[in-house]
Amino acid sequence: MASNEQIINETKTFINIETNICKSIYVHIPFCTNICSYCDFCKYFYNEKMVDDYLNALEKEINAKYKNEVIETIYVGGGTPTSLSYAQLSRLLDILKKINVDNLEYTVEINVENIDEDKIKLLSSYGVNRISIGVQTFNEKYLKLLNRKHNKEQVITAINMIKKYISNINIDLIYALPGQTLEELNKDIDEFIALDIPHISTYSLIIEEHTILNNNNVENIDEELDYEMYKLICKRLKEYDHYEISNFGKIKSRHNLTYWNNEHYYGFGLGASGYIDNIRYTNTRSLNNYINGKYIIEEEELDFNETIENLFILGFRKTNGINIDDTLNKYHINILDIDIVKELIKEKKLLVENNNLKINKDYIYTSNDILTNFLGGNYERYIQE
């Protein structure tokens, strides 16, 4: 009979083999023509030469790291990818065309103030089949607060134009804005639903360090009102599948499910993060370093316990939770055997339903209180022979 240590080592070897399977790529384009007041992502004001130099560096990074796997999802985010000129956007798409793909979900983020029909035609011609639009709100007062430069009419015009070429569209909604009322949020939801698009991502405003809002000493709203707003969103978007804490889709985002399923993905570009060969890494935010080929500033090889910890932290973001059989097959652990799981089931904070372990919907809003229970656990002792 194999010793427990042998079983653990064999399981780790199995997981390492699994990590060679990478089906997703995230590409970061850090340039913007306008800086939003709430944004703490890696971004720079658009500069033509800087973009040209950046695209050259991006191509070199992809050539150096990409191992020719067949990729099923590509997500180009930012920043604002469509802040690039038509020629630069074409160059970016040419770089990504070298990637082997199959059954591809290909998403590009846009802002309505720098998209036109020629750029949408270009994206579509390269196989882009999903668009994500940073709408955030239609309320002019809050658009000004967020330093967004579009208006309602521009959004409607852009979406109608995009629908002629690409039907799978996501729009972002930000709520819990300083001074916002439930009535104002409800009106925004009315406007979002009227757009008749298949996916809505919702985000409670969190005022991060190094943002304009934080520098202006703007504070987050009352937590109780934030919760009432979250419940209103869930109630109003019942026609959509609430498949993840913040996401509602008639068509789910396959790329985002890569993250929540704790699967592996490349992160290319300035400030991008990736998860390859059981190593989580983060790229530099220094444009000079990146252009000079110094891509990664931080990397960490996960041990078995950290891998299972991430399985819980990420998997419980999905409203249907974590599949028990899939976890057993991949990690040789029956998650129902774990002591803290048993305790949380007893407290009815976790539920078992359709062979999935998930957070009780009554506790989803406060899910962080549940997730902290899974930090620093010793999961090796639950490995089965």
Descriptive notes:
By secondary structure, this protein is α/β, with parallel strands linked by helices. The protein has a domain at 21-260: pyruvate-formate lyase- activating enzyme (Alpha-Beta Horseshoe), CATH 3.80.30. 38% of the residues lie in helices and 23% in strands. It has helices at 4-18, 48-65, 86-96, 117-125, 140-145, 152-163, 182-194, 212-215, 223-236, 254-260, 287-291, 304-315, 324-331, 339-346, 367-371, and strands at 22-29, 31-32, 44-45, 71-78, 101-110, 130-136, 168-175, 199-204, 241-244, 247-249, 264-268, 273-276, 279-283, 296-301, 322-323, 350-353, 356-359. Strands 9-10-8-7-6-5-4-1-11 form a nine-stranded mixed sheet, sandwiched between helices. A three-stranded antiparallel sheet has the order 12-13-14, with no helix packed on it. It has a three-stranded antiparallel sheet with strand order 15-17-16. α3 (86-96) packs parallel to α4 and α7 (182-194) runs parallel beside α9 (223-236). The longest helix has 18 residues, at 48-65. The model has no long low-confidence stretch (mean pLDDT 92).
CATH class of the domain at 21-260: Alpha Beta
How large is the radius of gyration?
22 Å
Low-confidence stretches: none
Q: How many helical stretches?
A: 15
- The second-level CATH architecture of the domain at 21-260 is Alpha-Beta Horseshoe
Compute the average pLDDT: 92
Number of E-state strands: 17
Neighbour order of strands in the largest sheet: 9-10-8-7-6-5-4-1-11
Span between termini:
9 Å
Helix percent reads 25-40%
